[in-house]
């Protein structure tokens, strides 16, 4: 190969001296860059790859985890996922990170009715909470179009009204980022920087997301017999669970089943008036399943940290919990697929207040603190 | 000499063990189990079909589901006979049975590694057997039939659900919402079908039950769930809960596979 190249350059030299100088310079640069890359990769394989498996266990009072598609989490995988989650390196103009729409202090939502990017472009849906997302085995997103957290993480990066990047560009940035190279080596044992790909990025993000829990609300403490409800909260609990024939029913618990406070099902809860199912402005689950009866259905969201996640519903149409309860008390808009558990409620004002008092016992800020940024400033969000 | 005898004995034991193992493996079969839903003489479909009801009313369903526990094959024609367990629990849910094709197929379950042989009957528990009803979703790795349909406030599972709408005035709007949820050990039932059942290797070993939703709601023209008076039960109305639980036993019938 080298002999052939030298022979070729010599022949070019004889014909055109200028061209041959250019060719030589190009060849020199090529060799240097190869050497640099090789040096970087050589250094990479010298980084220890000893992933520490995390013995992740369900919180007390919670069910076992569904199967993880890529096996156990590791300390290094979670650390990498956390770093990526808070890094705008994943967005096209390096201004948005996953945490822009999933802010820890807002229980991993963004406080907006509809999520938007830095240019003010709005998504058609609100950002759902990620707490306890480890349990979401019936689909991710409001319409359940992603089966796993790994699949889910692929989409926002390239969505033009979210991060608006391309995966090749994002991967190029990460591959050229010295800290990330090492972190990917430590997490996944890559041999060279070009082993970093979108699959590994999403696997790391999913590992981190599987560690986001809400399991220490007052409700949990009461269940663990570490605290007691106030009389108002207790009355609200009874109404929420339809647990006494002597109090009005709220019908909440058919879908918002504890401890997750969701049954992960897809339902039409009657917030949108339509003449025909085809008229729903957002087809929701129906667009995924292509089933007419699923039009206008969305996943039942968790009520954990509900006091931190206003506004409510997939399109953020209700600003307060009072508005939400008033909607359900009305029985919702009738449609062929309206969940029949959404029916007129006989709640008095005090009943509603007690119900809201109970809902506040689902607040848990334990996991709502952003982590410290461990990357050097000049490494963040590099293009 | 002694060593030689030892070798012969050892080899004989190994050979016998190997033969036994082979026989056991060969005598296990997979059993397919189907539950077909009907409404009177019509296939049962969710959402897409209106069904005539008593007193000129009509109904349309969104979900009909119930648990079957401790499904066993009986070795003799008596209820206390030795039995072979097919499964501990299944959830028969018609929620996704929304087309005629799906209704004709019914709900299918497969029970693996069941000993082949001649059996004299099939017994099912209708609802969640008390020992399972004492557990909670926290005992099961999702997806599992018992990871949902749980009343934490009552410490038990919802054994059966009937959800849908009724048209009680004939305006075609189906404005009455129907939600009947039955649970509690008092409403657990068992039913035995004494039948000759032959399971053999290489054969299509298939068992089939039929459930008639109309029979769950209507006992006769004088005794039926009257949606003009009641549209909901969380098992707080024990009389109604018993009516539905008892009817479900009668509505679940043996059906010879076609």
Describe the structure.
The complex is a heterodimer of chains A (383) and B (258). The longest helix of chain A is centred in the N-terminal third of the chain and has 29 residues, at 17-45. Chain A is mainly α and 383 residues long. Chain A is built from 13 helices and two strands. Helix content of chain A is 37%, strand content 1%. Chain B is an alpha+beta fold and 258 residues long. The radius of gyration of chain B is 23 Å and the shape is globular. The interface between A and B is medium-sized, with 34 and 34 residues.
Largest interface: A-B, 34 and 34 residues
Kindly state the mean pLDDT of chain A as a whole number? Answer: 90
Instruction: Give me the secondary-structure category of chain B.
Output: alpha+beta
Shape of chain A: globular
Give the end-to-end Cα distance of chain A, rounded to a whole number of Å: 35 Å
How many β strands of chain A by DSSP?
2
- Strand residue percentage of chain B: 35-45%
This entry's quaternary arrangement is: heterodimer
Query: What class would the helix/strand composition of chain A place it in?
Result: mainly alpha
Assess the beta-strand content of chain A as a share of residues: under 5%
Number of helices of chain A: 13
Radius of gyration of chain A: 26 Å
Question: Topology of this structure?
Answer:
The complex is a heterodimer of chains A (383) and B (258).
Chain A: H1 2-15, H2 17-45, H3 75-85, H4 98-101, H5 149-158, H6 167-175, H7 178-188, H8 198-209, H9 218-223, H10 231-240, E1 266-267, H11 285-289, E2 298-299, H12 321-330, H13 349-360
Antiparallel strand pairs in A: 1-2
Helix pairs in contact in A: 1-2, 3-7, 3-8, 5-8, 10-13
Chain B: H1 2-26, E1 28-39, E2 42-43, E3 50-52, E4 58-74, E5 83-93, H2 100-105, E6 107-115, E7 117-126, H3 130-133, E8 150-151, E9 156-167, E10 176-183, E11 189-199, E12 206-212, H4 213-217, E13 218-220, E14 223-224, E15 232-233, H5 238-251, E16 252-254
Parallel strand pairs in B: 1-12, 10-15
Antiparallel strand pairs in B: 1-2, 1-6, 3-4, 4-5, 4-7, 4-9, 7-11, 8-9, 9-10, 12-16, 13-14
